[in-house]
Amino acid sequence: MLVIVYVIVLAIGAREYLVSRSGRTLEWIGGCQASAAACPTTSAQTSGSSDDSLFWTRHAKMTEVVAQLNPDDPDTYFLLGMQALSDGDVEESISRLEEALEVGVKHNNYLLQYYAQYELSRGADWRRVNLAVNRWRTNHPFSSDPLTIPLGAGPATPEDEDEMHEALGAIPWVAGSQLESFVVEDQPRWQMSLTFRPGKTVDVRQAIEAVTLVSLAPNDRERFRVQCSTLVDCTMVPR
User: Fold this and answer.
1) Cα 3 from chain centroid?
2) Quick one: pLDDT at residue 179?
3) Given the DSSP bridges, would you call strands 234-238 and 224-228 parallel, antiparallel or unpaired?
């Protein structure tokens, strides 16, 4: 029996996702200086963070100079990608980040985390998502940055929310989960933010199964579970 997938990974585009993270356009990027190593993580953001669109506008020429001096350096690709994102060109931004990934960049936690989140949020094939997430977690196993799963709707009851957290907590690689709600263009949105246990292989389908469980009728949840072959194709199967 097919079930309605509770998560809609295509519901929030990359730029809209960034807005949702901070409530202000592109503030999630968080005041990166002209060095990849200087970019703070998402969790380091505060209400006093400088607006990144303004930062990148002020330092656009610096980025151009760095690109001329070190055109083939992966950190240069990263800076150009962040500049493009600040300019609103998500496609160019991702293209630049993928150039950095092609040369095997490993040291840049922010780049690897952002790309993994992008792959999930755009609804990429589950194998691409798992590859991106595990590349990030393998190279930065102790990063406290979360992965956020956009939800199609919020839980109907507090009991539903408790069951989602319980199901997520049973996944070996999930260290914690937090449900977040916000408004984008006057529309309510929900997302589940996940943190990780170090050294565990991630299969994002397990998280999709956990949050989709509450789409089943309450009386069916003890007898059935959700099994997902992809991030969108899920069925109800006996426990």
Assistant:
1) 24
2) 96
3) antiparallel
> Are 42 and 28 within 8 A, CB to CB?
yes
**Residues 6 or more apart whose Cβ sits within 8 Å of residue 154:** 179, 181, 188, 190
Task: Give the CA distances from residue 40 to residues 14, 33, 44, 83, 163, in Å, rounded to whole numbers and listed in that order.
Answer: 19, 9, 6, 16, 33
- Of 137, 208, 222, 199, nearest to 177 (Cα)? 208
Average pLDDT along the chain, 239 residues, taken 10 residues at a time: 42 40 34 30 36 51 56 76 81 88 89 92 93 97 95 89 96 97 90 97 97 90 92 91
Total Cβ atoms within 10 A of residue 205: 19
Sequence-distant (≥ 6) Cβ neighbours of residue 39 within 8 angstroms: 29, 30, 32, 33, 82, 108, 110
Give SS3 for 175: strand
Name the phi and psi angles at 219, rounded to 5: -70, -20
Amino acid letter for position 233? D
DSSP secondary structure letter of residue 191:
E
Nearest to 179 by CA among 200, 157, 206: 157
Task: Check if the beta carbon of residue 184 is closer than 8 Å to that of residue 24.
Answer: no
| Geometric angle at alpha carbon 192, from 168 and 134, rounded to 5° | 70
Q: Give the E-state strand segments of 111-173 in sequence order.
A: 147-151
Whole-number Å distance between alpha carbons of 227 and 95: 33
